[in-house]
Amino acid sequence: ALGSETPALVLRDLAQQAGAPITLKAIGFQQEDIRKAAEIMAANPYANMAPLTVEGLTEMLTRAFIGQID
User: Fold this and answer.
1) What is the DSSP-derived secondary structure letter of residue 32?
2) In angstroms, rounded to a whole number, what is the distance separating the alpha carbons of residues 24 and 37?
3) Is the pLDDT of residue 4 over 70?
């Protein structure tokens, strides 16, 4: 929805309209690799407003795998 007030939704819609992949699955990421990726990310933390936990990163990557933004 380009009229959306949510920047993430606007960016997703623009990418989709341009034919770009909008999920981790669409770029070849394997669902079984989500936990391992979250563990690697948590082991190499960077400045972030919210604490980076394996559980939180797993949830974020799972949502990105299926394209769930909200």
Assistant:
1) G
2) 12
3) no
**Structure tokens that stand for 30 in this block:** 């394997």
Predicted TM-score (pTM) of the model is 0.82
**Higher-scoring residue by pLDDT: 63, 50:** 63
Which of the listed ranges 3-12, 13-22, 26-35 does the model predict with the highest average pLDDT? 26-35
Cβ 24 vs Cβ 64: under 8 Å: yes
Cα 47 to Cα 14: distance, rounded to the nearest angstrom? 28
> The tokens of 55 are what?
């559980």
Which tokens is 65 given?
């795998």
8: tokens are 């993430």
